[in-house]
Amino acid sequence: MYLTINRFKVAPGQEEAFEAIWQNRESKLPEMDGFVEFHLFKGASTDEATIYLSHTLWRDKAAFEGWARSQNFRGSHKGVRDHGSIYLGPPELEFYDSVQCIRAEG
Q1: HSE-CB for 9 with a 13 A CA cutoff
Q2: Per-residue pLDDT tens for 83-96?
Q3: Which residues on adjacent β-strands are paired with residue 33?
Q4: How many domains does the chain have?
Q5: Maximal C-alpha separation, the chain
Q6: What is the spatial distance between Cα 5 and Cα 106, in angstroms, rounded to a whole number?
Q7: How far apart are CA 89 and CA 62, in angstroms?
Q8: Is residue 54 part of a domain?
Q9: Does a structural domain hold residue 80?
Q10: Residue 44 maps to which CATH number?
Q11: The pTM is what?
């Protein structure tokens, strides 16, 4: 498995707008070969920012790279810069290869 994480710092008071952008956009992820799942997590809030993580799990690095080069990727990120006042800087992108997996029984 291959995990990609984007860490976003969202300006105070912009949380609803940020979440609406994600919830209302048309995702093409399920159409992509090797896509496993996506989550958007809301973290701690301070007077300075609210932290969000987008987490996308892929079968392998090649599947993620296929997504990153795809027209679906470009389409899903179209207009992101139009919402600059929501973000406190660019997202921080991280990549991880799985070294162990433990699953719930059943």
Answers
A1: 8
A2: 678 999 889 999 99
A3: none
A4: 1
A5: 45
A6: 28
A7: 28
A8: yes
A9: yes
A10: 3.30.70.100
A11: 0.87
